Amino acid sequence: MNQAALHRLITSKRSGKGANSSEDLFQCRLTTNLSLISSLFFSLYPKKENELFFYQLLNQMEELFSRRPKELKTQDLERLQAGNWYQSEQLVGMQLYVDRFNKNIKGLHEKLPYFEKLGVNLLHLMPITTRPSGENDGGYAVNSYHEIDSKYGTKEGFSAFAKQARKENVMLMLDFVVNHTSDEFEWAKQAIAGDEKYQNYYYTYPNRQVPDKFEETLPEVFPESAPGSFTYNKEMEKWVMTCFNTYQWDLNYTNPEVFIDMLANLIKLANMGVDIVRFDALAFLWKKIGTDSQNLPEAHQLISLFRMCLQVIAPGVILLAEAIVTPRNIIKYFGEGSLEGNECEVAYNASLMALLWNSIATKKTSLLHKSLQEIPAKPADGTWINYIRCHDDIGLGYDDDFIRAVGWSPREHRNFLLDYYSRGLEWSTAKGLMFMYNPKNGDGRITGSAASLLGLEKALEQKDKKTIDQAVSKILLLHGIILSYGGIPLIYAGDEIGTLNDYSFTKNDDHKNDSRWVNRPMQDWKIIEKLTTTKNHTSQIFNGLKKMIRLRKQLPVFADTQPVIVHPSPNEHVFLFERNDGKNKVWVVSNFDEHTQFLHLSWLFSIGIRPENTLVDLISEKKLNIENNLLELGAYAHLWVGANQL
Ligand code: GLC
Question: Is 618:480 a contact under the CB 8 Å cutoff?
């Protein structure tokens, strides 16, 4: 039983006994988590020198709780009683840049009906706090963790928006950029001014001795635009660790004061009415010479420590792990061993995302099957964010052993994928760009909008009806998978109307060196206005998504409390998985090929599908196409096969 389950138990046992004031329940949660909090704290910060900091932490937790708004405390208790609310089939998310979506927070507020129309009820708002003018990594260089940047609006405006969203059952997800601050953050400013206390909030060194040691094993995150992992600051006359961009300073969590102050920042963010906190770049939280300083055991302990404290103060708020790392490493962010279920509740399913793009390019599902079979299962209390695109690049983070197991060479295969998506080749339908190509080792990543990567841009240029239709089918296929696979689907704003690449970033000095901006377009409200009156690819995509979202919410079998059973298909172009709640079953069937494919009835029987009964494709509401004992799947067909119960 994880700590959250214990809190639920205690809350239910105490209710009705006159002793369940929120203060009293806070004390119960603190008592329940205290031994874990102290063992995590002292494993990172040895007791002898750090005991006083531990008491400081405890005092701070009480104070932070006292500042949590009353309505959020009430919501916390409701959430506790509701169990793992984040595993519900009712949740459907969208990720967006507030300014690019509709100018500012006020503009976003006005668009709440749009989300309702589509069926979206969870919003991931990209960073909205103050940041340096000029380059700021899309707001991931923070000048503050809770001051809203004036270009987005005011704190009051945000709080009015958050209140209204809560009223309409729309949840909010915001980033906590936990690994680094900008070089304009107040701690960085004091460090630059020579204050040693704040120099110790970062990894600062007077000469290259330690930086050189670190750099022997630290991989470069942005090798093209920000090579190396340290930056010299002239005013401070010191080197500072900057794993990302030169203006993003890595926080030094070996200093307990950094943890204590960052916990306060986290709670202030949660108190703004945030339901899910996205822990940005959390794999990097602990650094050690001689290692790649990613996914280290201490990083896991630190994340769990944040979570255990957050759970005591604001048990209704959960953590999303933004760990875009290898499949075997991602799973660890749910917590392993003694920390199982006590780290993050949610993690990005970056493995599924990258594997789907692999299947589109190869038109085959062998690597997808192999990987899904071999990756260890997530714990029952965790859930995934399933997505196909986001504001970042697509990394080719497949497990080399699995690539070899399906008969390909890892290096050549990755090269093929870079060719297919980002080298502008004639034979490929995709139009994407290369991100951070490293000629030293041939590594590269891919950027581009879902629609352009799936062939819509090229098809529209060629005015070719058949390939336009195929691109639309591919867009719906990939979204259909994330909407039916276990977890929270997160649609990237613009993808619901098939938005193409936006090449204008090349003309902006602050963006031109970062090709991820090709997929950070302005929301096109002119297209959206015409959705109901025009019948074209955009309305097909929007209406197709809307229909699948509605269907998802009507089918409890899609809740992530129910298993996902992947059936390795005998046809290498077909991906098939089953959702099964013991009573109802839905089989999700996708053809990744541009040609018609078939599945034999005998195999369908063997996995429990008896198509001659009452089974239909729930999306099209049509009978299955069966002839000569073969189920026929057209180009890029995507079916949700189930008994017509609606
Ligand atoms: C995360 C963000 C990415 C940013 C990086 C550094 O990976 O998604 O956009 O560049 O963190 O903050």
Answer: no
- C-alpha 220 – ligand 1 centre gap (Å): 14
pLDDT band at 474 (very low <50, low <70, confident <90, very high): very high
Q: Are 140 and 280 in contact (CB under 8 A)?
A: yes
Determine whether 280 is an active site residue: yes
Instruction: Name which residue leads in pLDDT, 223 or 253.
Output: 253
Q: How many angstroms does the Cα of residue 280 sit away from the middle of ligand 1? A: 7
- Annotated active-site residue 156? The verdict is no
Residue type, 449: S
CB of residue 138 inside a 6 A radius of ligand 1: yes
Structure tokens at 543: 């209406």
DSSP string, 151-213: TT--HHHHHHHHHHHHHTT-EEEEEE--SEEETTSHHHHHHHTT-HHHHTTB-EESSSHHHHH
Per the residue annotation, which of 76, 89, 184, 322 is the catalytic one?
322
Distance CA 242, CA 248 (A): 6
CA distance 600 to 463: 36
pLDDT at 19 over 80: no
pLDDT digits (tens, 9 = 90+) for 224-242: 889 999 999 999 999 999 9
Helices (H), 340-464: 350-362, 366-374, 400-405, 410-422, 450-453, 456-461
Ligand 1 touching residue 89 (CB < 6 A): no
Residue 39 CB neighbours (<10 A): 14
Residue 533 has pLDDT above 80, yes or no: yes
Given the DSSP bridges, would you call strands 171-176 and 630-633 parallel, antiparallel or unpaired?
Answer: unpaired
Residue 41 has which token pair?
């704290």
Range list of H helices, 239-346: 256-270, 297-313, 327-330
Q: By C-alpha distance, which of 179, 182, 165, 353 is closest to 276?
A: 165
Mean pLDDT of 497-504: 98
Nearest to 481 by CA among 328, 591, 573: 591
Q: Which 8-state DSSP code applies to residue 6? A: H
> Among residues 280, 399, 514, 593, which one is catalytic?
280
Backbone angles phi, psi at 364, to 5 degrees: -130, 155
For residue 440, CA distances in Å to 220, 234, 259, 394 come to 12, 30, 37, 20
User: Ligand 1 centre and the CA of 244: distance in Å?
Assistant: 8
15 pLDDT above the threshold of 70: no
| Helix, strand, coil in percent for the chain, rounding step 5 | 45, 15, 40
